[in-house]
Design goal:
The protein is mainly beta. The chain is built from three helices and eleven strands; from the N terminus they run βββββαββββββαα. The radius of gyration is 15 Å and the shape is globular. Pfam families: CheW (PF01584).
């Protein structure tokens, strides 16, 4: 298994890692629980002019201006709907606080290295650079997102620009 230069979410040497499982559309995803600061319901956001569509806006979270990103829009998974199940996952990534809108959150799953398979090549349909791999637990399969890579990409630099 390859390792990344960032403090990656790939377990090494038999250690288990915990992932917060969330849904987007019909798929289940996972993000390292170490990056999760808190979970919140979806509230109204302050929209920012000329921001990319996936940046829903910003919220004031205890004095910190937090950009809110809709992952369904980011991953081209159709038009998002916001209801009582919609959750904003507040993440702390490289000392930046970012909110990630997901359809729902289910639970925290512990995965061992043996339960994580490399992400298959998708032929450009999906950018696999942002994926840690696929985690399997019984009949469940989680698409594990390397949130550090996703949120430190050039595109995400726009978030900071528009939130400032």
């Amino acid at each position: 298994m390859t390792t990344h230069s960032t403090q990656s979410a790939i377990p090494i040497h038999g250690e288990s890692l915990e992932y917060l499982a969330f849904t987007l559309g019909h798929e289940e995803y996972g993000v390292s629980i170490q990056k999760v600061q808190e979970l919140r319901g979806y509230d109204a956001v302050t929209h920012i002019a000329n921001a990319p569509e996936f940046i829903k806006g910003v919220v004031n979270l205890r004095g910190i201006i937090v950009p809110i990103i809709d992952m369904r829009i980011k991953f081209n998974l159709g038009t998002p709907t916001y209801d009582q199940f919609t959750v904003v996952v507040i993440l702390n990534i490289n000392n930046r606080v970012v909110g990630m809108v997901v359809d729902s959150v289910s639970d925290v799953i512990t995965l061992t290295p043996e339960q994580i398979k490399p992400a298959p090549e998708m032929g450009g349909a999906v950018d696999t650079n942002y994926l840690v791999g696929l985690g399997t637990v019984d009949e469940r399969m989680l698409i594990l997102v390397d949130i550090d890579r996703l949120m430190s990409s050039n595109e995400m630099g726009l978030i900071q620009q528009h939130a400032a």
